[in-house]
Write a structure and sequence with these properties.
Blueprint: H1 3-21, H2 29-32, H3 51-75, H4 80-83
Helix pairs in contact: 1-3
Length: about 100
């Protein structure tokens, strides 16, 4: 596998992981003290959003997922044939 492919796949895992860990640990004003910080803010907006913590968590999760993906790629534990749930399609006779 080329290193550019590895970087691209890792970045895809990172973006997916960032969306997965984004809501972890966030608290709304209702959960903290009951009042909204300022006028015009939504009541569902988080009061303790920390993007660097989200990025660190996403990096760790993406690294674990990428290591599992690469180990599967190298060892061929699960292949495309294993994912074929419906069997091979029937061959049609076109009459040629």
């Amino acid at each position: 596998m080329n290193w550019t492919s590895m970087v691209a796949i890792y970045l895809l895992f990172w973006v997916m992981s960032a969306f997965l860990v984004l809501p972890v640990g966030l608290r709304t004003p209702d959960e903290v003290d009951g009042h909204v910080i300022g006028k015009g803010h939504a009541t569902s907006a988080p009061v303790n959003f920390r993007p660097l913590l989200v990025a660190r968590r996403a990096t760790v999760v993406a690294a674990v997922l990428f290591v599992l993906y690469y180990a599967n790629y190298a060892n061929q534990w699960i292949t495309v044939d294993d994912l074929n749930l419906f069997g091979t399609p029937p061959v049609k006779d076109l009459g040629y």
